[in-house]
Design a protein that fits this description.
The chain is mainly alpha-helical. It is built from twelve helices and no strands.
Length: about 270
């Protein structure tokens, strides 16, 4: 039996909406409660700071990194690697994904090999990338490209396949040719989903940063995390991981804002 009291509450309605203030408060609670739990566990002395430093220790480590180290330089080079690898991936995945999702012969040719390669871990390509590309910036960008490209192609193809056939048939009835259907019907209809796919895969690009900076790096957030591990600087490891997460969150929110700005009709209630 369905509880009618739950149905009458707008907040608990299936796919219901929250007011802006309520949404903000719940979101802050979701962020602050884990931090509070971490602080309580680490400050209680039950865990050695080598394994779980307190939040103030992590903040002090980040400040020292900024003051005496090269935090801004590490941030800059890591952002460059992630953005460049992602943009290269998107530049190739967008047209290929549209073609795979539109034409059956292209799907039959490209989808099996793409589906096969996407299950291969990007870290496994490091020896080949070092052999083929070298150990400079191109190698790090290539790892991020490999980690995002194949997933992105298949997700964009699926976004294109979800365009309703009724729209395509209506355009054919009105005399549109094949190219017009692709450019004026399929691509515009799939744009909101494709932008969401780009948002998701941008997050993956950030997760591959540490892997990419395994390749003979001497700078970057991922490199700093790996270097700190060698010297048991757990506070700096936490600082680096949190910074990577924060930059990933910022890019995610930028994509959300672009989506809301580009397709406002999807958010009208």
């Amino acid at each position: 039996m369905i509880d009618n009291t739950i149905i009458r509450r707008p907040s608990w309605r299936i796919r219901g909406n929250l007011g802006r203030r309520t949404h903000l408060l719940i979101s802050l609670a979701g962020l602050l409660l884990p931090v509070g739990w971490w602080w309580w566990i680490s400050a209680g002395g039950a865990v050695d700071p080598i394994f779980l430093p307190t939040p103030p220790l992590v903040i002090d480590s980040a400040w020292e990194w900024l003051r005496d180290g090269d935090l801004l330089g590490d941030i800059g080079i890591s952002v460059y690697r992630v953005v460049t690898g992602f943009l290269m991936s998107a530049a190739l995945a967008l047209p290929l994904g549209v073609l795979i999702g539109t034409y059956a012969p292209i799907k039959a040719f490209f989808e099996p090999i793409t589906d096969f390669i996407r299950y291969m871990p990007a870290a496994a390509f490091i020896p080949l990338v070092m052999l083929w590309v070298g150990i400079d910036e191109g190698a790090k960008i290539a790892i991020i490209f490999i980690g995002t490209f194949f997933q992105m192609v298949l997700m964009i193809a699926e976004d294109v396949r979800r365009v309703p056939m009724e729209q395509i048939e209506a355009a054919q009835t009105m005399g549109a040719d094949r190219d017009e259907i692709v450019m004026r019907v399929i691509v515009p209809s799939a744009k909101p989903a494709i932008l969401n796919t780009l948002r998701v895969t941008m997050g993956w690009a950030w997760t591959y940063l540490v892997v990419a900076e395994l390749v003979a790096a001497n700078s970057g957030l991922g490199f700093a995390v790996l270097k700190a591990q060698r010297f048991l600087q757990t506070d700096k490891i936490f600082a680096g991981i949190i910074l990577i997460g924060l930059f990933g969150l910022v890019t995610d929110q930028c994509f959300r804002w672009i989506h809301r700005y580009s397709f406002p009709w999807l958010y009208r209630k």
